[in-house]
Specification:
With 552 residues, the chain is α/β, with parallel strands linked by helices. It has a five-stranded parallel beta sheet. Strands 18-20-19 form a three-stranded antiparallel beta sheet. It has a two-stranded antiparallel ribbon with strand order 1-2. A hairpin with a 2-residue loop joins β10 and β11 (213-218). α1 packs antiparallel against α2 (87-98) and α1 crosses α12.
């Protein structure tokens, strides 16, 4: 009874076969006569003096040049360098790998592990971040929401087929004790299975009371979960709770939650396309038959990191730390247990009060700010101080952490802003394309006939007039291939009957598309502007960032 399911131990025993009288098969067992618990430090390889000196020199150079923010930003560039962008998300993953400080206050356990949730649209590279964490963290397990059950994540009671005795089988969260649990497709998990994670994510224990077995198992792990919005793509027309589709009791257990959108601007598509193509052109081919076996003795005899192995060059030519250097950097940072100064404590309290006041105003669609958010604001600066190899959490650490906390709390507002920016860029690109392209209808036919007919001196002036662009078409002409003015007025009247105070232009465009029309944005703007002058029940207001229709 000195060990429990999920514990990592060092044992001494005899490896023997085992069978019963009514069985013809054998089972391999170990008759143990001595067992010793392994501490978290014994599970990892010890760093030699050369490694520690190299890591501390690296940290000192960054601190002198960029301060507390640079200590977090520079190593975070080494988190999944093949993934474009996601700056805040990579910083959150780095802080999660380092973790806060676990404490016990008056016989109560205070969690030190950091949980991160990524809610993103398809093809947002969420799974790539999870796969990278699996390769960097000393202990990491991977599971999926659809392939995991409640007992598979926590623990289950099994019956031994030979002896008939009941025993406990540890689940993923118990096996990941003192490590990281990566859960992909988190939104596909059933509600009943998610409820089983509530205790493990906050109290970091799993309590089992089944078949006369009552046990409490340790589940002290960080959770990195990735999920899709309810309908695949994030809708700015609906509230945050509708898009995420997770209960608030579970969302509050995540220290940081981010919304990752698939941006549609041409500039972003060009940059991400260049990044992915460079990855394919510069990455060496993988050897499917390569398999390297290294024993613990060989790993322990390392003489430190050579200078050329500390950094690597990405496909874009940027110098980042190697995976092995990053792994040892995190291992050394975990040995620190910084305490918060009085100035930092006062700043944390003030930031928490400000967040609560902003939430009380009720004018922002954001994640709820609770007392667990205050504990998150404490854990994140502590993790940043550990990255600086400091024993004190200072005000700069709090400022760095608060930038991530605000980006997490106001993720829905930032997502709406990003959607509006994408829509504005699309309108600008469509307008520029319409100006650059030849006009539809008769002018294009005239231009084609002119290009196909030889030009002589007598017809030069007529041909020049034929190829000269005519003035911009009116609203009726521009919308000839799309919805007519009557159809647009009918759609506006339908919104008016729904008692809508105002709508955005893209809502009208979606309504017309559902009615079977193919509206052009530029022509639709002109038609609505014309209707607002002739009709009394609408008012049209167009700015650089939005096109709004108000109903009287």
């Amino acid at each position: 009874d000195c060990v429990k399911a999920g514990d990592r131990v060092t044992i001494v025993g005899m490896y023997v076969p085992y069978t019963t009288a009514d069985s013809k098969s054998f089972q391999s067992i170990i008759l143990v006569n001595h067992v010793v618990h392994m501490t978290s430090r014994e599970k990892q390889n010890k760093l030699v003096d050369a490694d520690i000196a190299s890591i501390q020199k690296f940290c000192t150079n960054i601190s002198e040049k960029k301060g507390a923010w640079g200590v977090l930003e520079t190593p975070s560039k080494s988190i999944a360098p093949s993934v474009f962008g996601l700056t805040n998300e990579k910083m959150a993953v780095l802080l999660m790998l380092v973790g806060g400080v676990e404490r016990k206050a008056h016989d109560s356990h205070i969690r030190g592990d950091i949980n991160v949730l990524l809610v993103g649209e398809p093809s947002a590279a969420k799974s790539q971040l999870l796969r990278f964490v699996l390769g960097v963290a000393p202990l990491a397990l991977n599971t999926t929401g659809k392939g995991s059950s409640g007992v598979g994540l926590t623990a289950a009671v099994t019956v031994d087929q030979y002896s008939g005795e009941r025993s406990l089988s540890a689940g993923a969260m118990v096996l990941a004790d003192r490590g990281v649990l990566c859960i992909d497709e988190f939104d596909k998990m059933s509600q009943q299975d998610r409820v089983s994670m509530h205790e493990a994510m906050e109290q970091q224990t799993v309590t089992i009371t089944k078949a006369s077995i009552h046990a409490t198992l340790n589940a002290r792990c960080s959770v990195l979960a990735a999920a899709n919005p309810v309908y695949g793509f994030y809708s700015v027309r609906h509230k945050l709770a509708f898009n995420v589709g997770l209960p608030e009791s579970l969302l509050s257990r995540f220290d940081l939650s981010f919304i990752i959108l698939d941006q549609h601007s041409s500039e972003f598509n060009r940059r991400i396309g260049t990044h992915i193509l460079r990855n394919h052109m510069t990455a060496p081919p993988a050897d499917a038959d390569a398999y390297v076996v290294r024993t613990l003795v060989e790993r322990g005899e390392t003489k430190g990191l050579e200078k050329e192995k500390q950094t690597a060059v990405t496909s874009s030519g940027e110098s980042v730390a190697t995976v092995e250097f990053l792994r040892r950097y995190i291992q050394h940072a975990k040995t620190f247990a910084p305490m918060m100064t009085l100035e930092a404590e006062s700043m944390v309290s003030q930031h928490y009060v400000t967040l609560r006041e902003e939430q009380a105003q009720g004018n922002r669609d954001s994640f709820f700010v609770t007392a667990r958010t205050l504990e998150s604001i404490i854990r994140l600066p502590t993790a940043n101080a550990k990255l600086r190899f400091s024993n004190l959490v200072e005000e700069d650490d709090v400022r760095v952490a608060m930038d991530l906390v605000r980006a997490s709390v106001h993720a829905a507002k930032d997502a709406s802003t990003q959607r509006e920016k994408d829509r504005t860029d699309q309108l600008a690109e469509a307008s520029s394309n319409n100006k650059a392209a030849p006009l539809d209808g008769e002018p294009r036919a005239k231009m084609q006939r002119t290009e196909g007919t030889p030009m002589n001196a007598g017809s030069s002036s007529a041909a020049l007039a034929a190829v000269t662009p005519s003035p911009a078409p009116t609203a009726a002409a521009a919308s000839a291939s799309g919805p007519t003015t009557a159809v647009i007025r009918q759609a506006l009247m339908a919104f008016h009957r729904e008692a809508r105070a105002s709508i955005e232009l893209y809502e009208l465009q979606d309504r017309l598309t559902a009615m079977g029309s193919q509206p052009n944005l530029v022509a639709l703007q002109q038609t609505v502007a014309s209707l607002s002058q002739s009709e009394t029940f609408i008012t049209y207001e167009s700015t650089e960032t939005s096109d709004t229709i108000y109903f009287q």
